[in-house]
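> tool_call: predict_assembly(chains=two)
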Amino acid sequence: MVLKVLTVKLTEGVVQEFIKMLKKSQMKMLETIMVLMIFFILLVFGLVFYARFSETSAQESHREQLVTQAMDATERFQYSPEVLCSRGSVGSDTNCFDLLKLDAFKDVSEENQGQYNKYYPNNLIEVHIIYPEEHQRDFVLFNNTDEHALNEELSFMPAVFFDPVEDESYFGYLRFAVWY
Amino acid sequence: MFFKKGVVEVQFNWVFVLIAGAVILMFFVNFSMDYREAGETEIAVQVLQELGSLASSSLQAAGTAQDVEFGGLELEVYCDPLSCNEYGCDQMFDFGGRGISAPEWMDIEPIFSSRNIESDHLLLWTLPWQAPFHVTNFLYMTDPEHRFIFVCDEDNDESCRLAGRIYSRFSENVYANHRFIYSEAIDGLEFEGERQNNFIIFMDDNDFDGFENIDDDRIKERINALFVNPDESSVNHGEVYFGSVDDDEELDLDGEGSPYVGKPMLIGAIFSDFKRDYECNVRKSMLKFLNINQIYKKKSQMLYDECPSGDCEGCEGYYGDEGEGMQEYMDAMEEAIDVEYFDISNRAGFYENIDGLEGLNREADRRGCPRVY
């Protein structure tokens, strides 16, 4: 009887000890998992924040790149022999555009759109002749804009437009837009 | 038994810590490597953007030579002639081996450049190419580590006269590293620390054996040769042969000759290390020419149509109606170009019509008629 009681007590003690130990390991395990969870939550927060920040700065850098490209394209256009008033082998007049060449350029750039799109990426170039009044004229010279683009960066350039047939010059400006 | 379980628990903890630690460490190592890679690519993109803007603005100022300081510049510039089509040619303009393509406008503008530019200085130069109207400005790029050595045969006046003319034009670029020597004096050539020697030889390749006479092995290490062979009718057009010196110090010519039309194009060949790069840029030049020629043909037609009712009555004859007058010359120049490959198929014919068109345009101007170009 005594032996039986002793055995039961001993068994209870072992079980209690085992349960106690199990609880202790569970607690430890739970603690470790919690620490890891918090660590990974913080890590994910950090990564999300970094990704958002990188995305914004990448967008900004892309925008800057497009603007630089557009400015370069504007500059290239100002010196383009395709449209400038020419003086034979002497060269070309800066800021003077030959109206007949502009008309011809409009056709040729449409025929070779793929090539000129590389030259003037995302550009819209418009001609505005404002003086004298009887020669006022506005037209789109070149259009390489994406219909999904939402923003535009603008620049304007005063220009003289020369009509070789009438031997007259008119005043106006060129409007360059880059869409992105 | 309890003690044993404790041992297992402690060991399991350590294994767990090690695995988790390794995973976290790998994650951070990977992340930092990607970050570094992205940073380097970003720097390369920025540098190329700056170089692209620089090249673009250089193109506007014909005749200007520039020495741009650019610390640790490692630029690879090459152009594939087989990629040429009606949209241009694939141009590579890579900084630090990042595999970045050039800005798209470079697919159309001819850029005659040394293949590898590795220096703290970038040398840029621009010359206008006229045929006879202004077609474009050629952009030339190299670094001071490239030495350009002009060689002619002392006993051949014609060879030296031509070499002298080209050298004098080339010397307008005050920053480029260049020399003029007679073929007989080539053995006296001294090494000056250059990375590459480009010899421009105004002799037949069969008559030239100068490379064997160079004493300094450091010069022989990297030699490119360009043999200039002008046509009999004019020095303004002809052929160039590209070659290099192989390990056995033998001259190795790269296939057949490549045509040039006009001195600026010949200077383009001088700046190009390889035949492929040169031919690619010649094709781009032809593509540009065809566009501008088209514009002038249209302008001639407009003048022909509108002059009778405008201020230029009586001038129509100069411009001609569809294939006449100046348009006849422009058509003939177009015919001298192989439009499938954008190659010059008949350079003498091309040049003859340049003269014809120039004469008629000048005549129109003299008579008070609007000039076409």
